[in-house]
């Protein structure tokens, strides 16, 4: 997972 | 993780807890739209398909489990719990929520960042979440006396969306390639839907009066 990925949001 | 994102997640968590607390302790779901709750359950189920495939952090996995578990248990409570079911205003909660699913799904098929199953489902969940509050807002407008917990629940949900926008602005300036039009626009639409509610919520708070939305 890269730092700038919206997929790490809920 | 920045402070806006954390605060957003915490208000989101608080909103769910307030609702569960209301349902569990008072055994009542008066003023709560089952339609909205069903849409939220679908939103989380389609968004968190990556829960077993991509590990981001323990925090992330735990929060996903909480949102999945809470949204499905709220739906279960309203549909199946003997006492809670009785307090559900079926006749007031008439929004045709199924009609929101297909347009959101088609839009996700057409406009997405990557045409894969998981990505389309993720995008679908964003579009659906943007409009999922509509049945609840319609129900609030029909309810004469909105109880405090219901008002707080909707307020916390709106606050969560507002804080996520601040989180995106922060990330845009601090992370080099952070540009995501799809969550931004759908998140903005979602937040705008709360604008009217916020106005009346603050008015009632300022005047120390019970929350009532104009019909």
From TrEMBL, chain B:
Top-rank lineage group of the source organism: Eukaryota
Keywords attached to this entry: Endoplasmic reticulum, ER-Golgi transport, Membrane, Protein transport, Receptor, Signal, Transmembrane, Transmembrane helix, Transport
GO CC term (a single one): endoplasmic reticulum membrane
Topology of the protein relative to the lipid bilayer: Multi-pass membrane protein
Gene Ontology annotations of biological process type: protein retention in ER lumen; protein transport; vesicle-mediated transport
Subcellular locations according to the entry: Endoplasmic reticulum membrane
Keyword Transmembrane helix: yes
InterPro entries: ER_ret_rcpt
Gene Ontology molecular function: ER retention sequence binding
Signal peptide: 1-31
TM region positions: 55-78, 98-115, 121-140, 152-170, 182-202
Family under the similarity heading: Belongs to the ERD2 family.
Protein name (Swiss-Prot/TrEMBL): ER lumen protein-retaining receptor
Species classification: Eukaryota, Viridiplantae, Streptophyta, Embryophyta, Tracheophyta
